[in-house]
Amino acid sequence: MAERDVHMMDRALGLAREAAAMGEVPVGAVVWETATGRVLGEGFNRREVDSDPSAHAEFLAIQRACAAVGDWRLNHCSLAVTLEPCPMCAGLIVNARVGRVVYGADDPKAGACRSLFELTTDARLNHRVELITGVRAEESAEMLRSFFRARRAKGCDA
Length: 158
What we know:
Helix content: 25-40%
Largest sheet: 5 strands, mixed
Distance between the termini: 32 Å
Strand order of the largest sheet: 2-1-3-4-5
Number of strands: 5
Structural class: alpha/beta
Oligomer: single chain
Low-confidence stretches: none
Strand content: 15-25%
Order of helices and strands: HEEHHEHEEH
Mean pLDDT: 96
């Protein structure tokens, strides 16, 4: 784990707080050029706001990064995300050829990097990702726990 990974995770945590303020599950993501640190794309969950099941933080950040570089290949990039990517996002990470993924909290219910599946490192696929796990994990997990605790207290489906 590099100092830049921690900095980008802090940025992703800020985006996750923005999502929570909008009533979205608090997940944030940042894509940057690994060598330079130049941020290419950011996102936070927007499924409720956009009525779009694909509007995950990683998905939006990757789309914006691809638009910024004018290419769908992000081999030279890193992605920081506060929660372990789900199968949809892990598949996108592989297909976009993201070079590195830095994530905070493991997701025992839907994690597709190591918790339930290992899509990003599966040797049967055409691309494998360098994984850095557990960066600001407790902060990421506590933000999610607090969000769902508040939803349950309001009687919302968690």
